[in-house]
Amino acid sequence: MAKPTLTLNGKPVEFEPGQTILEVALNNGVEIPTLCYLKDATPTGACRVCLVEVKGARTLVASCAMPAGPGMEVTTDSQAVHTSRRLNIELLLASGNHNCLTCEANGRCKLQALAYKYGITDIRFKGQTQQYATEDENPLIVRDFSRCILCGRCVQACNDVQVNRAIGYGYRGAASKIVTTGDRPYHHSDCVFCGQCLEACPVGALVEKKAKGQGRSYELKQVRTTCPYCGVGCQMLLHVKGDRIVKVTAAQGPANKGRLCVKGRFGYDFVHSPERLTTPLIKEDGQFREASWDEALGLVAKKFKEIKKEHGAGAIAGLSSARTTNEENYLFQKLFRAGIGTNNVDHCARL
Ligand code: FES
User: Fold this and answer.
1) How far is the CA of 78 from the centre of ligand 1 (A)?
2) Where are the domains of the chain?
3) What is the distance in A from the centroid of ligand 1 to the CA of 42?
4) From ligand 1's centre to the CA of 156, what distance in Å?
């Protein structure tokens, strides 16, 4: 069956039923700015930055929330669209403390990028903004409500993506705020510190505590890798400055689809820990001493041979790790089955 079509900036384009105007535009290489849109989450239409013109519509429409319809005539960058987007960005800038100089998000902030794109050089609307104390008590996430633009992406990330349901909108009007149940701090709430809200925040309202002051986004190199903690195989990006990991964010992968858990996202300190073993240790007379790999592996092989000779191969068992790759686990069982001659092989499939 022929797909429905609409007109996008004067060009006819096909779309799938159920797609929004924003999705149709993205599929056709037409850029529409967004702030509150979070892929695969229910659109909230909160920021009004993605406004477009639809012929015959009474007002400009939020493209992230408006389903595409057959025969629609959509214009994504008219003067009216430009003026409205600019105004909405100005209002968001005026709604809080958006001092980029001291903001940890400087360089990666979507609001900052849009202000630059739309040529905003001054805060036109000046007034009283709500004063909030920064929440800094937990060891992982800093919440600065004065920088929050109430886009709701953190709420979508918590409720729609991770389905933890730890945060939502609270209060009303100018006092509106993202809250946990009872507006308690994260560490006294249902929050499990997966950090998905951090990842979703387009401004500097949610910041990873350990990464503060460690480098601007444009100074960090991103290295894609697989989480080492369990066998799920979540994909992640290491943000590296020099030879140090500054923070970890999720990458899209078949197993995690852009999500991470508390361990994957925050548990990277061990990499640079001075307590980390970097050389084999051999215990003699109750004391460990450093050894070379050749010496350590030679000792292990010698002990295996002694045990096998005295008690048989069945006296030896191998416990592998769910944190290693399939290929490594294959080689491990091969070593025990074919090399040593025992079927006593297992692995820790638990976290
Ligand atoms: Fe559409 Fe915010 S991105 S309203």
Assistant:
1) 17
2) 5-77, 128-272, 277-311, 317-351
3) 11
4) 13
pLDDT digits (tens, 9 = 90+) for 145-181: 999 999 999 999 999 999 999 999 999 988 899 999 9
pLDDT class for 351, splitting at 50, 70, 90? very low
Residue 22 alpha carbon to ligand 1 centre in Å: 9
- Name 333's Cβ contacts closer than 8 Å, sequence gap at least 6: 318, 320, 345
Q: Is the CB of 62 under 6 A from ligand 1?
A: yes
Considering the four listed CATH numbers 3.40.30.10, 3.40.50.2300, 3.10.20.740, 3.30.1370.10, the one that applies to the domain covering 5-77 is 3.10.20.740
- Asked if 320 and 333 count as a contact pair (C-beta separation under 8 A), the reply is yes
- CA-to-CA dists, residue 214 to 55, 103, 169, 210, 237, angstroms: 49, 13, 31, 8, 16
**How many whole angstroms from 256 Cα to the centroid of ligand 1?**
25
Range 205-219 average pLDDT: 95
The correct CATH number of 128-272 out of 3.40.50.300, 3.30.70.20, 2.40.50.200, 3.40.50.720 is 3.30.70.20
How far apart are the two ends of the chain, measured CA to CA in Å? 49
In this prediction the pTM is: 0.86
For residue 34, give the ligand 1 atom closest to its CA: 3
* 51 Cβ closer than 6 Å to some ligand 1 atom: no
Beta bridge partners of 283: 288
Q: Which atom of ligand 1 is nearest to the CA of 43?
A: 1
Q: Which atom of ligand 1 sits closest to the CA of residue 65?
A: 1
